[in-house]
Amino acid sequence: MVKDFLNIMWRFLPPYRKYLVLSIVCNILSAVMNIFSFAALIPILQILFKVDENRVTSPMAWGDGSLKDWASGNLNYYVCQMIDSWGAVTALFAIGLFLVFTTLIKTSLYFGASAFIVPIRTGIVRDIRNLIYFKITALPLSFFTDERKGDIIARITGDVNEVETSIMSSLDMLFKNPILIVSYVVTLFFISWELTLFTLAVVPAMGWFMGVVSRKLKAQSLNVQALWSDTMSQVEETLGGLRIVKAFCAEKKMNERFDRINNLHRDTLKRMVIRMQLAHPMSEFLGTVLIMIVLWFGGILVLNKSTISGPTFIYYLVILYSVINPLKEFSKASYNIPRGLASMDRVNKILNAENPIREKDNPKHIDEFRHTIEFRNVSFAYNYNAEDPSQTRWILRNINLTIEKGKTVALVGQSGGGKSTMVDLIPRYYDVQEGEVLIDGINVKDLGIYDLRQLIGNVNQEAILFNDSFRNNIAFGVDNATQEQIDEAARIANAYNFIMESEHGFDTNIGDRGGRLSGGQRQRVSIARAILKNPPILILDEATSALDTESERLVQEALERLMKTRTTVAIAHRLSTIHSADEICVIHEGRIVERGTHEQLIALDGYYKRLNDMQTI
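^ ABC transporter ATP-binding protein, sequence as received from the core. Prediction below:
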């Protein structure tokens, strides 16, 4: 556990070193002031109980006896002088004022030490959230095919919150308590080394007993966070499919499913929290046992008048009790930190995820598309078996295709044949295992990823929009777009009229995923976004397949305007939308089995002819 915690600190703490140094300095000064403030108890007790034995009649010079004798002797002398000069009552009041003053300084330093920890605590949590989000945007699409969105949301919310409440909330304690414990233990040795050695012999047994109880907390915390991820995934799936849930009258089924996972999470959490609640009563009980043992052994020393006086022993007990509080805080940490470490393990699954889509150290940069896109002997599989390629299930196999600038190439075929996968290889959402994809004769793996994707515009079957205004959705990805440019893009996409008829025009919020719009309206906003980007290469992935006839006509008109002067790769199920394509490729089971114009493919009387006949009927 200690190693994992130190790894987290080493990883995230460096930007906040100055706050850490200031906090440590304040803690050291606070500990020193605490020791000196409690030292006022000795003369107070001597005055109250009129202890005059071993009265020192003159100040001791440095070197007269041990450091302990020099300090206690001079303290005794000056207190006696105050009593003789001012009287016992006035001397008692003056010592009380000294105690109040030193306590004020001590508490101010204590506050400063805690305040300097706050920027560290909040900053590290912010940094972790940023790292997760930045990593999510950097990871390839393949990572998210194996992960649930609800689980990822749980990690960036619940797990990071757990890191904050369990680890970051313990930072103040972890940077303060070691200083306090060392300072107090040194003071205890200074007061009575015999009594301190006896005390330290008892403490390890109590620490071991505390460790037995907290040992399983990390595993329990992992289970709790995993079940929380399942709960969040259930919520995310329900929100995404609420229309289907209601259409199939499945509310009761979904409620029972959620109640089952929610109860399992609650039961696991209950067991973990009950174990955690043992921390305070157990530390309180063990602290009382320790005080009782020390009181018994120290009482023997006082009664035998061997090495320690009554007032000094009370001061010893006060300092010892001051040590117990930091030890209790450590016992809380032994319960809290394993929970945070368990959550950090889940966060690290994202942060340490390998990104196979890597950019070369010195990539080639291009700012325009000049000649061709080429698939050269391309084979691709999502789960490639490098050790035994024969066991690989290939999605695409031996694809050879050249798309010349300004041409439109359509991909048709059965669902699951590999069409969408094929176009995803152009912007390098995935990397091929065999062969290569080239832009103007350059392998896309050799190009800068930003440069490559700036050349490409996408219009997908499902228009992916954001919970924002029309203006910001259309201008998404285009910095400093003018209103005139946005207006023109909307007009070309047949979207201007319905946008202006909305409540606030281009400032109207379209709702989550464009939920306030119809399917055809969402698609036309998506096309306007692609028009504004003005890419030389356009990828259309079944852009009209989910639309009604009227919406399809409007969208098709917008697409035809968009496709002019651009190189287009279009995936289509409705063959009527790609009759005018320069080349149509029929994809069947990952291979190109036919290619040609619409008329040529009809004449072949093969796969394409059968698809066309079925749609005609």
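The chain has 23 helices and ten strands.
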